[in-house]
Amino acid sequence: MKRTPLIAGNWKMFKTCSEAVETAKRLAELTQNITDMDIMIAPSFTSLVLVSESLKNINSLINIGAQNLFYHKEGAYTGEISAAMLKSAGVSYVIIGHSERRQYFGETNEDVCRKIRASIESNIVPIMCIGETETEKKEEKTLYVLDKQIENGLKGFRSNELATLVIAYEPVWAIGTGNTATPEQAEEVHRYIRSKIEKMFDLNLAENMRILYGGSVKPDNISELMSHENIDGALVGGASLDVNNFIKIVNFNK
Ligand code: PEP
Questions:
Q1: CA 76–ligand 1 middle distance (angstroms)
Q2: The pTM is what?
Q3: Which one in 27, 141, 157, 248 has a CA-CA gap of 20 to 30 Å to 59?
């Protein structure tokens, strides 16, 4: 099954507006001829418009993502950002339920579900992050945790509504720690996630869904990860901040 790879960079709370624009432009120059995969960068909210406008001028193939959204259309929700606002800022992807949001901001699977619906209604591709903590892994609860995150995160959806959904498997113990899951461990979990999607929805959705791996992805481990059948790309944090590192990851097949 051939799925278009997606290499996505999560810039987290790094880079001022000028730094973000500068990084994005350099990356755009270096990726001008790459048409065999999708590339996404997710700057902070404050840089989204500037980055997307600056890339428009140079005809870039890079997609702009946001790191979060709020699920209401509009209203008295001080400090929040809606899907329509993101859309108007040039955003086409949004990261939802990142473990840092679950851990530090109390995001639940139910929030994740509402956010996925809001993004789909605004034609923004949702990247749903799931993954177990170190304790959950030690207690052999990985599959149970993933089941709950998937069942509750995708509750109430019909298969055809999820055609664009991307899932990012990000074991929390691997994020920002340098401890990558082995490619074999990641492949096994990805295969499980795909079979779960098939059981909850159908084979067609499961076969076409892109499942990314995230957690200390670096230039020196990306090729091996990507050589596995069920690993369709990567969500990259730390290594996406530096153009030289990120471009090596994007060029994993060169
Ligand atoms: C992430 O932020 O989604 C992530 C995977 O971070 P890192 O690559 O730094 O582990």
A1: 32
A2: 0.97
A3: 248
